[in-house]
Amino acid sequence: MRANADITLPAFLSKNRIQRIVILSPHMDDAVLSCGGLMDQFSKKIPMVIVTFATKDPGKINRNESQFLTEVDLAPPKQRILEEKRALSSLGISLKSLGFIDGVYRRGTNKKLLYPKQLFGYKSVPKRDADTLARLVQILRKKIRKSDLLLYPLGIGGHVDHVLCKLAAKKLKGIKKLGYEDFPYLALHKVPVPKRAIKLNYSLKNKVKLIKFYKSQIKMLFKNSENIPRMLLQRTKSATEFYVK
Questions:
Q1: Taking every pair of C-alpha atoms in the chain, what is the biggest distance, in angstroms?
Q2: Which of 28, 34, 49, 63 could form a disulfide linkage to 80, CB 3.0–4.6 angstroms apart?
Q3: Is 1 a member of any domain?
């Protein structure tokens, strides 16, 4: 089933009198990975800001506490935020850090990791992390204007931080919103093209260039930079992003 191509993003922005695009990004790479084509194409046409959820340094961490950290060499937040700032600066886009701790490092009131074994596969937020969701909703209500278009992750792959951002966005009333497809989980889970969505054609070359700013993530997500274009084109064979109402 093809996505609804009758609605273009410029037409949507005009019809809804959008004055600013706000992209809610779970981590310091998700906005570019998922919406880099849109960012490249519209950053000079309309004010745009990236609001990133997980940006706080967790401090000293024992890697053996987390199954994920024993399997993946995850770059520290300080390095990742520098990569984020460089990528966004190349487009003239501002970054607003929300200062939450990444799910892989987040701890409960008992000081133990909330997700020592499983970060993915969630459809809802566990009760033990409900306070994080409540705080995120409260912050977003203060930051998002009625004249904004909020782009939020659809939570493909079920990473708990992506699901948190999705559910928080859905709790905001009176705001124009579109969901974006989480890349590269989109490719890894072989998600079909959405039945009704706004289709955006973008410059593959420019999006790949943006993704390469995140040097610390390339090996973990793509094995090497040569795989980036292949994964971006894996589903549609063309450089397209889809935004779901």
A1: 52
A2: 28
A3: no
